[in-house]
Write a sequence for this structure.
């Protein structure tokens, strides 16, 4: 043997996990929701996410090569996840150029301006989405109607989401109970028969993805379960107090981006806390803010803002919420 | 309307006045009387905050100077005697002159002279590698080549030579602050007296193994043969633990020890070339792998590329 | 007593599941042919080097004292062969540096006549508690799981403290290693006597043997023997690394948590490895000093992964030779297991008291992957058995914030390597935590100096 032996510190073996493997797992978990989306919204729902991924990857490549002048990190797959998630939060009839702007903001501002993967304080896909939402409100809130849609929604305002209808209706002084008659029933919403962004409509498919993520140990249950529980309890409380002005808790769980947000956005590694305790605090914050924005805010949907707001608190949470140390000596014990 | 403006002006002025009074009293109460000379001393210091004086920063050093009754033991290596003279003037104290010093690397174990016997992987820090094992050579004394010293230097006075894997000191940038000495886990960096034209003669090795053992892992190790010790007319060389050491304060740079060293571990740097050119050529050729050593090779290489004639270490033979 | 699933215990926090790879589990212990030359370092334990009592040129017999322990934490060193002391000089050993060693040229195999070399089992314990500890101390026994802490110190419970349970560590949670497993199968009766000896020395009436569930044969065998021995029970444990860590094992078996900075005896528990227990039996009942040990030689590329009874001081290369020789594609040789073992740069170094295994890693698996940016996935936090935040400790190490790292309890780290193992970005977390610990250690020494 002529080769020199390698010497390094232990451990000398490594687990199977790698960044790209985790990211691939997230993409796989998103596939069911994507399939449902294609089923309901047609071809646009197939090519828009693909385009979004391509845009994100191109922007990441260009920024790293020509502005930051450092090695490309395309292989880790984080740009693919950002691209997919961004597309999933957008309506399927969105012009492609708006999508491109969204990708540029998501990657350029949301991720690269902070130093790339691992250092961004806010979820890049949501940064892109919120930028578009504020800049192009019309395009982002005219939702296409799903195919095979047989409720009275078709007679109502074309392309509104159930949440949007609720907000509009309540502004004009109508009762929630009468408004709710116009939206699809819970089972339909669970399966995705409603207007909305490409990836957010089918709660069932998203939950399937959640199970996959749990099975592959890519994420833990803490954040999604806590957000959903908080939303359920808080909206349930409001509903019990005043059913006339508040939608029921199941409605809140199934509509809008709660499912997509809690399973795929809030659990983003980079922008969520490091300890289970911290995760729960963060998730409760998101749950409460979501319902508060939905109920009292100017926008019908609040998940995106809730997540971004709580993202800002993550460094603080990490600083003060520590894991339980082994052998911690209780000072007054 | 005008009333509103008037009231606003009055109320804000009143508020300001009250705040001013409160602040005045608070300021009085918590007033810290500080010797103004501290600021003066700090002003003349180099503001490098390198810690070379033994204090965390220039401010703390200034405080220590003002407090002290004499400047004995207080020295700013970066500013040198010039700055210390100014400090002494401000404080009306006697100046305590110190010889200017410069860091030297006491290892020549380049890739060429010291064969690699293993391959280290992991964090590029000498401290970690040192804790793990002898390093990728069998020499437990010499440079590990991962550049903790370069990292520690605040004055860009050190760089790693990629050809040799050893650090090189840039003499004119070195302030002898000692940060690299502190950083090196193997203590191969020494602060030595700075001579005229940055001339240096030193044993570039710190191994204390017996000659036979040392030769096995490094061809330019000091083998403790004492030849230099015997030849030195000024008693500047001491032998301890199989290692020769040249005291830079006693050395008169006569260079007698250099040619007698069988392993060429004594370096002479920044001396003019010998007059007989023929001899130089033959020696250089004979010792192409020996005498020149890592540092000088490197410096020469750098000279050639940058064309910088003031480069410190040149012309070894 | 049958082992049921619901009886399995484990430590609650953190841990990982590396591939077990117990290739040599089915291979009985073989006696390695005697080496012609042994290298016996004067430090094979945690603590001060022992002081040589023989000289170059002396003739020694196997079992003869070569170096006497010096200082409180230290251990005796004995010759493992008979022969002539060729040299007493610095030689490379597993520490990565040269240390003073006896180099002995073997001649025949003559043993100290006081040693009982027969296979007879001496079950009857006739000696007093003090005698047991004295004999263990004289035999130079140290923790044989790898920590090599002198055993007699752990048996002398400090005044004011009381041990109430002895835990025998048969976990062997390191992948690849099977030395303890084979020992439990082949020396089970001796092991039982050893446990009784240690119980007597500690004055406890309860002992628990902790074994991971992946060794059902050992659990069954020892269970059978334990039923006949009052006070001794076998506890099956879920397979999880680092269960063999002292603090984790105590937590798993007793539910007690050793406070940060305290010793196991502070919660009434004392842990000894099965290898140590066997050595204690041989020292007390057979007058045999610690001069040989069981070593697993293993690796995926190795022709014949085996368990050998090896004389201390045998060069590692000879042990590898006996297992089929070093494969051509070897990239790394590790003494110990893959999680905590030490990679070595050369193979002429000796097997010492703490060498539980020799692991050969092929070049294709010997290298680290390129380091990627931290994605803050928190996996390191969730696997850390000590409840630390490795990502943070690494960051603090990179920024040289040693004081902060100390506040974040870097010193609690047991260096199990779970964090580096699990990191998807291949970050060298443990390397930096070790740097933290080193620097903090230097800070503490500085502080102590300043105080005195």
């Amino acid at each position: 043997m002529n080769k020199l032996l390698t010497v390094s510190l232990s451990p000398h073996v490594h687990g199977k996990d790698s960044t790209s493997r985790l990211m691939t797992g997230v993409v796989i978990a998103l596939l069911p929701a994507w399939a449902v989306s294609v089923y309901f919204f047609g071809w646009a729902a197939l090519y828009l996410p693909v385009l979004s991924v391509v845009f994100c990857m191109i922007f990441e490549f260009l920024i790293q090569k020509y502005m930051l002048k450092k090695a490309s990190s395309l292989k880790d797959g984080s740009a693919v996840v950002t691209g997919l998630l961004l597309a999933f939060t957008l309506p399927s009839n969105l012009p492609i150029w708006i999508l491109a702007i969204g990708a540029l903001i998501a990657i350029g501002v949301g991720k690269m301006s902070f130093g790339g993967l691992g250092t961004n304080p806010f979820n890049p896909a949501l940064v892109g989405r919120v930028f578009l939402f504020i800049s192009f409100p019309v395009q982002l809130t005219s939702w296409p109607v799903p195919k095979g849609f047989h409720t009275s929604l078709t007679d109502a305002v074309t392309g509104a989401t159930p949440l949007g209808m609720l907000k509009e209706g309540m502004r004009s002084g109508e009762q929630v109970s009468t408004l709710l008659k116009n939206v699809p029933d819970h089972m339909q919403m669970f399966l995705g028969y409603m207007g909305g962004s490409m990836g957010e409509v089918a709660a069932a498919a998203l939950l399937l993805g959640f199970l996959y993520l749990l099975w592959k140990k890519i994420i833990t249950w803490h954040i999604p379960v806590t957000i959903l529980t908080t939303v359920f309890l808080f909206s349930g409380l409001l509903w019990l107090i005043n059913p006339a002005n508040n939608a029921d808790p199941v409605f809140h769980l199934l509509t809008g981006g709660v499912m997509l947000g809690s399973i795929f956005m809030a659990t983003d590694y980079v922008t969520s806390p490091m300890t289970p305790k911290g995760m729960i605090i963060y998730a409760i914050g998101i749950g409460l803010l979501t319902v508060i924005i939905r109920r009292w805010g100017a926008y019908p949907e609040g998940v995106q803002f809730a997540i971004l707001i709580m993202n800002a608190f993550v460094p603080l949470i990490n600083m003060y919420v520590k894991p339980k140390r082994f052998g911690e000596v209780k000072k007054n014990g | 309307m005008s009333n509103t403006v008037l009231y606003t002006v009055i109320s804000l002025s009143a508020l300001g006045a009250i705040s001013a009074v409160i602040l005045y009293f608070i300021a009085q109460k918590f007033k810290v009387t500080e010797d103004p000379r501290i600021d003066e001393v700090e002003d003349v210091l180099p503001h490098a905050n390198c810690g070379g004086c033994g204090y965390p920063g220039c401010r703390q050093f200034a405080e220590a100077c003002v407090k002290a009754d004499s400047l004995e033991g207080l020295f700013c290596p970066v500013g040198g005697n010039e700055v210390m003279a100014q400090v002494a003037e401000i404080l009306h104290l006697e100046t305590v002159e110190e010889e200017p010093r410069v860091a030297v690397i006491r290892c020549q174990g380049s890739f060429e002279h010291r064969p690699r016997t293993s391959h280290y992987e992991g964090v590029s820090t000498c401290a970690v590698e040192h804790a793990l094992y002898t390093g990728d050579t069998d020499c437990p004394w010499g440079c590990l080549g991962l550049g903790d010293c370069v990292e520690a230097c605040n004055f860009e006075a050190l760089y790693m030579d990629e050809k040799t894997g050893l650090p090189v000191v840039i003499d004119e940038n070195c302030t002898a602050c000692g940060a690299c000495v502190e950083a090196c886990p193997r203590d191969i960096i020494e602060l030595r007296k700075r001579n005229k034209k940055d001339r240096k003669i030193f044993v570039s090795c710190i191994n204390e193994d017996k000659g036979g053992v040392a030769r096995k892992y490094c061809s330019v190790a000091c083998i403790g043969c004492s030849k230099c010790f015997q030849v030195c007319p000024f008693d500047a060389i001491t032998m301890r633990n199989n290692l020769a050491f040249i005291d830079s304060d006693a050395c008169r740079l006569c260079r007698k020890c250099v040619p007698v060293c069988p392993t060429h571990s004594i370096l002479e740097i920044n001396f003019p070339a010998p007059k007989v050119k023929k001899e130089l050529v033959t020696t250089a050729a004979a010792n192409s792998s020996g005498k020149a050593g890592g540092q000088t090779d490197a410096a020469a290489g750098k000279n050639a590329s940058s064309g910088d004639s003031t480069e410190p270490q040149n012309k070894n033979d | 007593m049958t082992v049921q699933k619901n009886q399995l215990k484990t430590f609650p926090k953190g841990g990982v599941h590396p591939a077990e790879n117990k290739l040599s589990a089915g291979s009985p212990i073989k006696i390695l042919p005697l080496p012609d030359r042994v290298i016996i370092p004067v430090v094979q334990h945690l603590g001060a080097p022992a002081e040589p009592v023989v000289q170059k040129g002396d003739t020694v017999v196997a079992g003869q004292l070569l170096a006497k322990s010096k200082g409180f934490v230290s251990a005796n060193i004995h010759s493992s062969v008979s022969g002539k002391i060729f040299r007493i000089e610095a030689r490379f050993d597993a520490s990565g540096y040269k240390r003073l060693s006896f180099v002995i040229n073997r001649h025949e195999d003559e043993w100290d006549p006081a040693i009982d070399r027969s296979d007879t089992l001496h079950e009857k314990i006739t000696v007093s508690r003090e005698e047991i500890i004295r004999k263990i101390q004289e035999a130079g026994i140290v923790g044989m799981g790898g920590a090599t802490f002198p055993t007699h110190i752990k048996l002398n419970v400090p005044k004011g403290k009381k041990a109430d349970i002895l835990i025998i560590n048969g976990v062997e949670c390191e992948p690849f290693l099977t030395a303890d497993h084979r020992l439990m199968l082949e020396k089970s009766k001796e092991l039982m006597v050893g446990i009784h000896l240690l119980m007597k020395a500690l004055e406890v009436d309860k002992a628990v043997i902790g074994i991971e569930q992946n060794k059902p044969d050992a659990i069954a065998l020892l269970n059978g023997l334990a039923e006949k021995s009052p006070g001794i029970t076998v506890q099956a444990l879920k397979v999880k690394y680092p269960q063999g860590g002292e603090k984790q094992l105590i937590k798993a078996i007793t539910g007690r948590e050793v406070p940060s900075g305290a010793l196991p005896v502070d919660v009434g528990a004392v842990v000894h490895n099965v290898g140590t227990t066997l050595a204690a039996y041989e020292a007390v009942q057979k007058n045999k000093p610690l001069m040989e040990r069981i070593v697993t030689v293993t690796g995926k590329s190795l022709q014949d992964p085996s368990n050998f009874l090896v004389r201390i001081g045998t060069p590692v290369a000879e042990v590898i030779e006996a297992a089929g020789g070093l494969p051509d594609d070897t990239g790394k040789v590790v003494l110990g297991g893959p999680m905590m073992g030490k990679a070595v740069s050369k193979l002429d170094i000796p097997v010492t008291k703490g060498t539980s295994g020799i692991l050969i890693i092929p070049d294709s698996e010997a290298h680290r992957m390129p380091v990627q940016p931290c994605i803050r996935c928190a996996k390191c936090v969730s696997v850390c058995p000590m409840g630390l935040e490795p990502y943070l400790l690494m960051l603090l190490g990179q920024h040289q914030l040693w004081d902060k790292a100390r506040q974040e309890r870097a010193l609690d780290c047991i260096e199990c390597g779970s964090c580096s193992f699990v990191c998807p970005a291949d970050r060298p977390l443990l390397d930096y935590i070790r740097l933290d610990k080193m620097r903090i250690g230097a800070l503490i020494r500085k502080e102590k100096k300043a105080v005195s």
